[in-house]
Amino acid sequence: MPSFISNSSDRLPNPAAKRAFVFGLLAAVVLLAVVELRLRQIGFRPTVQDSKELWAAQRGRAALLGKQALILVGDSRMQLGMDLDVLAAETGLAPVQLAIDGSEFLPVLADMAQDPAITGKLLVSGDVWKLAADRPHDRGEEWVAFYHRKYKDLVSAKLETLLKSQVQQQLALYGGGIPPQVLFTRLTSPGMVRLFYLTTYANRERDADYELVQQPAFYINRVLRSLGQPLDMNGIDSREKFEQAVGEKLRQSAAVQFSADQFAYTNSLGRQIQNKGAQLAFINFPSTALVRTIEEYRYPRATGWDVFAANSPALTVNCWDYPEFGFELPDGAHLDRRDKAEFTRRLVAKLKAAGFFD
Amino acid sequence: MQFDSFLFLIFWLVVLALYYSIPDWRSRKLMLLIASYLFYAAWNPPFVVLLWISTNVDFCLGKLIGAAQNQPRRKALLALSLLVNLGFLGFFKYADFLNQTAAEILAWFGIGYQPQPLGIVLPIGISFYTFQSLSYTLDVYQRKIAAETSLLDFSLFVTFFPQLVAGPIVRAPQFLPQCKTPRQTAADHFVWGLTLFLFGVFAKAILADVGLAPVVDRVYADPAAFAAADAWLAVLAFSGQIFFDFAGYSLCAIGAAMTLGFSLPDNFHCPYGALGFSDFWRRWHISLSSWLRDYLYFSLGGNRVRPLRTVFNLVLVMVLGGLWHGAAWTFALWGIIHGGLLAVEHGVKHAAGFRPESSAARLALMLATFLLVSLTWMPFRAQGFENLAAMAAALVRSDGAAVLDQSSRIAVAGIVSAMLVWHILAREIRLEQLFERFSPMVRGSVIAGLTISVVLFSNGDSRAFIYFQF
């Protein structure tokens, strides 16, 4: 067995290590360049991979910006619905995207309330059924913990996130939207694989291009997710039959009843935030078609949003109440990238009219 | 900064550019030292002070020990070095653990004591540089080496960035002589250093992180949800994960040092092709196991004492080795098991003179060693004794759902089998010799394949090297 003590001359394979390495590296660079060009040729664009590191970078920014920060908290509706350039231009503030796809907003809101450095303005997209004190463990909690325990004090983590997101933003082959396992299929049979409909940017702004999704399958999936119960799709061959089946399923479930107590926790967070001199507004984003039907049935406004809004110390805006927010939502719940800027402009106008930016 | 990061890539390129543009050797070393402090500060700047104190204390004490003729004075100076180094290590790594253990012992006697966690942040790599620095004062005390006269060289020995945070643990006689003359780096050396680095990143980022870690994490997170076959797969997957993670790091360190003309010792040599546990420990984390052997096991009398005392020595060294990895009783258990296995093996060799000669017997012994080592990784990986018990129960349960998807199973089985075959076939030869057996075209293709894989597959969530936490 060789000694564990070695010197560099022991370690040299002979001959031609240099030539093999240079050949290998050149071959790799050429092949990767070909893959990149081919991906772009068939329509793929670079996209940053949304991750807890990327979120943590923005979370740190929110604390640094202080009063200048316009912090966005919520879920995918907030992340897909807000145009950060428009927000910056319309408000003069620096938008910080802290919404987390598929998560509860309460862990992030609690984190905002506890941090004395958070003194800016906060926009929160929240569904009433998420306002209860008894909150489930989800990604929001995990990402907040990651920021405080493994990110906040580490210089290298911050620099790495910055570099990585910039590289991902430049290269289609390095983006989060391309699972390498299916790369070969994509390169050789572009028609067989659909382009990824989501594009994320280094500032965590996200675009959804619904022209790239297969309808009505995408819409049906979204409705079924909102319904939260399995539905037998056998024999359902028209929109009417689908709506009927969803309606029947819905009637088998009971509406959620809220009490004012369940909003106490969220309201206490709101007061904590406002006591620091920060401002807070809750936005109920628009929804349409069956997604809206499900939400209206399952979480009745009279005992849900309306009670919450009446007791909230913060400003509340329900987009369902205003016709200017009546955008067509391709999946019933999210804005298409083409409508995002206009929606943002209208929301800012509404908030300005309510004195939120005074 | 991690080796498999863009930040390190930029840092390394800048260091190489500066290093090779500075003609003066002393200035080069100074630049390397500053770069090493920056490398460390990139994690947590205040902890650089700790590193600096450790370096300076041992440099001064080494000189004093070297100059002292009076034995009690030499002993006192060595004790001071041990106190400072182990004091830092003890405070940062074990304070909360000892506090919690005290509370548990008091609870047995019905005394209620509920300490608040001290919330001490562990300085990264403290276990590694403490042992490295300590080995120097121990060597000077034992008159194996003369005290170092250059603070610059000594500081570079403790702080050299490729091995600073996760080893290999380099000894002073291996490194300090390299500081005395300018390092000459031939193009072939430089390129082989890059190749080793690429192997290391591939092992860590692709095999450990992408191929094996997801299965390990899923099963260990909720062992009760998995069928026995999946639990076994996770146990074997962790054997692969920890090997590729740590051996990958060591290869990166050796490769990065080689591009600067420095040679670092091997840290792994086909450990899963080991014939028994003493052979395993000659092949796994070689720089730590040899450190524990030379400075602890031999100091306790090694095997030149009564048989029972030898057993005690083996178990004690392995328990301390376990606790070196982490402040938790599961690590101590891991050490006890390995110490016990070493003691049994020692006894069998002595009493029965067991030496497998035939190929079949050797192969059987290798596989048995691998299987037992894999099982002993369970306390190492488990998050506490409850998790360990759940994992052990999952291995023998007759029900449970087959939750893992087929592609994960195939990936784990493929990677672990290939690793095992490689370790068994290449146990007597080095990586250099193995690589040399292929034609330049094959070698070039391997490098191209690894580079492409690293670029394409490593774009997910990055995981820290497992050994950073030690």
Please report the number of helical segments of chain B.
18
Total number of β-strand segments of chain B?
0
Oligomer: heterodimer
Structural class of chain A: alpha/beta
Radius of gyration of chain A, in angstroms, nearest whole number = 24 Å
Query: Tell me about the biggest sheet of chain A?
Result: 5 strands, parallel
What does this structure look like?
- The complex is a heterodimer of chains A (358) and B (470).
- Chain A is of the alpha/beta class.
- In chain A, 47% of the residues lie in helices and 8% in strands.
- Chain A is built from 14 helices and 7 strands.
- In chain A, the strands form 2 sheets. In chain A, strands 2-1-3-6-7 form a 5-stranded parallel β-sheet, with helices on both faces.
- In chain A, strand 4 and strand 5 form a beta hairpin.
- In chain A, helix 2 crosses helix 7.
- Chain A is globular.
- Chain A starts with 16 loop residues before the first helix and ends in a 5-residue tail after the last helix.
- In chain A, 37% of the residues are buried.
- The N terminus of chain A is likely disordered.
- Chain B is mainly α.
- Chain B is 71% helix and 0% strand.
- Chain B contains 18 helices and no strands.
- Chain B is globular.
- The interface between A and B is large, with 49 and 61 residues.
